[in-house]
């Protein structure tokens, strides 16, 4: 409770200025006559206000994009707040139907200090941990609230971006001749045509990204037993289950 004494030597306006933390306060000005210690009719005084309440932080310029090969979504945003510099930040993603919590976000997430300006903050979401989907209209929402005196949340939302954490189907490998005394063997098969995929043999890319379903490959066998594991990989680095065959060269 603050008490202040002022001497009023003449009639007129008296302006009281308070310096208080900018959080929600109820306040009242009750003037007293000090000689008689009697409250003066408060109705004779006008309280000008209200006190500026704590405001929710502002998020802007939210952008998100998934990188190739690692499934990581890079999120950039600006964050400002009138009163404080300590913010709690979290992220949600749109899966094409509903909003979901993005669980594994590093960088500018969790407790975020914006005392240096809060411009161009970068967070990284490891999307593959949370979901295996392929949508062309995913979006990111970055939420924030005051960490010290939370008074509500606010968010900023990105534009649509392609989110693809869905592995392609395992490739189909047509029959292989085994055993064989031929070192070279042309083998054929098919792969997931729902999106652009490359073909890997024992982890090595043998056919580059394309949307063609059928593939053929000139297999070179080593002498003896050949373990051949084929898999498909899409443009975002998602890798299918393996289709494994064996060929014996004698
Ligand atoms: Ca605030």
CATH class of the largest domain: Mainly Beta
How much of the sequence is in beta strands?
over 45%
CATH topology value of the largest domain: Immunoglobulin-like
Total separate domains:
2
Order of helices and strands: EEEEEEEEEHEEEEEEEEEEE
N-end to C-end Cα span:
96 Å
CATH architecture of the largest domain: Sandwich
**Global geometry:** rod-shaped
- Average per-residue pLDDT, rounded, comes to 87
The main sheet comes to: 5 strands, antiparallel
Write the layout of secondary structure elements.
Layout: E1 32-33, E2 38-39, E3 58-66, E4 72-80, E5 86-94, E6 99-101, E7 105-107, E8 110-113, E9 121-126, H1 127-130, E10 134-138, E11 140-146, E12 154-157, E13 161-164, E14 172-173, E15 184-190, E16 197-201, E17 204-210, E18 214-220, E19 224-234, E20 243-249
Antiparallel strand pairs: 1-2, 3-4, 4-9, 5-6, 5-8, 5-11, 7-9, 10-13, 11-12, 14-15, 15-18, 16-17, 16-19, 19-20
Bound molecules: calcium ion (CA).
């Amino acid at each position: 409770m603050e008490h202040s004494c002022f001497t009023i030597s003449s009639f007129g306006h008296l302006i009281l200025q308070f310096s208080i933390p900018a959080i929600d306060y109820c306040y009242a000005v009750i003037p007293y006559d000090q000689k008689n210690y009697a409250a003066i009719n408060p109705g004779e005084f006008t309280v000008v206000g209200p006190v500026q309440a704590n405001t929710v932080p502002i998020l802007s310029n939210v952008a998100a994009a998934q990188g190739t090969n690692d499934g990581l979504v890079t999120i950039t945003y600006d964050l400002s707040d009138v009163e404080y510099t300590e913010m709690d930040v979290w992220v949600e993603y749109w899966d094409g139907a509903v909003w979901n919590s993005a669980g594994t976000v590093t960088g500018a997430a969790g407790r975020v200090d914006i005392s240096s300006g809060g411009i161009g903050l970068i967070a990284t979401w490891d999307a593959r941990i949370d979901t295996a989907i392929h949508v062309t209209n995913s979006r990111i929402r970055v939420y924030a609230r005051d960490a010290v005196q939370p008074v509500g949340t606010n968010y900023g939302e990105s534009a649509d971006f392609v989110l693809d954490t869905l592995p392609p189907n395992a490739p189909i490998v047509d029959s292989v001749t085994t055993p064989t005394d031929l070192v070279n063997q042309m083998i054929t098969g098919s792969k997931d045509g729902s999106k652009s995929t490359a073909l890997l043999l024992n982890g090595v890319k043998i056919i580059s990204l394309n949307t063609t379903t059928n593939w053929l490959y000139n297999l070179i066998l080593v002498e003896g037993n050949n373990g051949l594991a084929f898999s498909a990989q899409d443009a975002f680095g998602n890798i299918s289950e393996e289709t494994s065959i064996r060929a014996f060269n004698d």
